[in-house]
Automatic annotation (TrEMBL):
Coiled coil (UniProt feature): none
Natural source organism: Jimgerdemannia flammicorona
A Pfam family this chain is assigned to: Rhodanese
Protein name listed in UniProt: Rhodanese domain protein
One term of GO molecular function: thiosulfate-cyanide sulfurtransferase activity
Length: 155
């Protein structure tokens, strides 16, 4: 199924399962796979997200759901850091449920963002506007795209 996010296309691909390592055979991996099977979450590739961020005047809301300890590696430019543990509580401070803007959530590798996307849908955000970044921040870095580093704290 082809959908349009601004001027960039993305595909709702066959349900992706996570089975690369023994970690992904855990209950956590089973949960992510179950969510993908029952509530297929739209995914966007790092390349398509970058093109969208460069090409549109109405950017998607990009939410980094990694933990604060992971932010030392940097983040996708203009992303809002809102850890997975606080997402449902604080997301409306970032974007209202009535917003027409697409929301892209990402984590390090793409699993927590599936859970985050499902949480947003349960909160009432429109499913067709919720996207998970395929391969997460690791995929973004692997593509060599720009990374915004944290500002050094003044002492």
């Amino acid at each position: 199924m082809l959908r349009t996010l601004s001027s960039v296309n993305y595909r709702l691909q066959a349900v992706r399962t996570f089975t690369q390592t023994s970690f992904f055979n855990s209950r956590y991996g089973d949960l992510v796979n179950h969510i993908q099977a029952t509530v297929p979450i739209h995914e966007i590739t790092p390349s398509d997200l970058r093109a969208t961020l460069q090409a549109t005047s109405m950017w998607p809301v990009v939410i980094d759901v990694r933990e604060s300890s992971e932010h030392a590696e940097g983040k996708i430019p203009h992303a809002v850091c809102l850890s997975r543990g606080l997402l449902e509580r604080d997301v409306e401070k970032v974007v209202s449920v009535e917003s027409e803007r697409p929301i892209v959530v990402y984590c390090a590798g793409g699993m927590r963002s599936i859970l985050a996307a499902e949480g947003l849908i349960r909160l009432g955000y429109a499913k067709e506007r919720i996207l998970s970044l395929r391969d997460g921040f690791d995929g973004w870095k692997k593509e060599g795209f720009e990374i915004e580093m944290p500002k050094e704290e003044r002492k």
